[in-house]
Design a protein that fits this description.
single chain; alpha+beta; Enolase-like, domain 1; 4-stranded antiparallel sheet; two-stranded parallel ribbon
Length: 235
């Protein structure tokens, strides 16, 4: 599908698929995290390719600047404990992040958000708040998983989860097949052999309950219903 023919939701969904997991690549304040630079590097290349813009804006009259004081307990090199007063500035604002489809600028998505920053200087607090807000907006909007391990390890877990979900869906369909055959086909001797023949075309063992692929299970159910009719028709 050409980018120009995709709507904004399709474009954003495509970006999410490309950036589903990222490695935590920085350390600070006793924890590891994924930097804004790394996130932007992956997201903006997709935005350029798909012709999307992202516009951050501060909601007018929502910015609040609050002096903030905290007492920290410190220890000298000699082991003496003392209290230190730290004066900082807290800056907070309501925000709106707006996605724009550059191929159709009237097509937009506005996402309410927030910004909070705390530093010794108001301008620094504002800047750090914007950086933090931007990083977490992209992480949460695209449901990006961050991992200390190789991102491939996450993808393996994701594929395992997808496989388990597919098995569950298939089991629900095969349960329907089981009920269908027992209630509407196997009771008629003249239909039993024909039903078993159809089943054997989809699974060699003939045990349809072993089917793990939902598509295969749906195809078998459709083939049986085409041959013998739907349950509703029989009822």
């Amino acid at each position: 599908m050409a980018e120009a023919n995709m709507n904004i939701y399709q474009k954003l969904a495509k970006i999410r698929k490309q950036v589903e997991v990222m490695k935590r690549d920085a350390k600070g304040f006793n924890y590891t995290y994924t930097t804004e630079e790394s996130i932007l590097a992956k997201v903006t290349v997709q935005m350029d390719k798909l012709h999307l813009s992202l516009i951050p804006s501060i909601v007018p009259e929502s910015t609040v600047v609050i002096p903030y004081s905290v007492t920290e307990t410190k220890t000298t090199s000699k082991g003496d404990v003392y209290d230190k007063n730290v004066n900082e500035i807290l800056v907070q604002s309501d925000m709106v992040w707006t996605w724009v489809n550059n191929d159709n600028p009237d097509e937009r998505i506005e996402v309410p958000w927030a910004m909070v920053g705390q530093q010794s200087d108001a301008s620094q607090a504002f800047g750090s708040g914007l950086t933090y807000s931007s990083r977490y907006f992209l992480l949460k909007y695209f449901n990006i998983a961050t991992s200390d391990a190789d991102p491939d390890a996450f993808r393996k877990k994701q594929k395992a989860a997808e496989a388990e979900e597919q098995k569950l869906i298939a089991s629900e369909i095969t349960a329907t097949i089981d009920t269908y055959l027992k209630d509407h086909v196997y009771k008629k001797p003249e239909d039993r052999d024909a039903a078993l023949e159809i089943v054997s075309k989809y699974i060699k063992s003939g045990n349809y309950l072993e089917i793990k692929d939902p598509i295969l299970a749906r195809s078998l159910l459709a083939a049986l219903q085409e041959k013998f009719g739907t349950q509703e028709a029989k009822e």
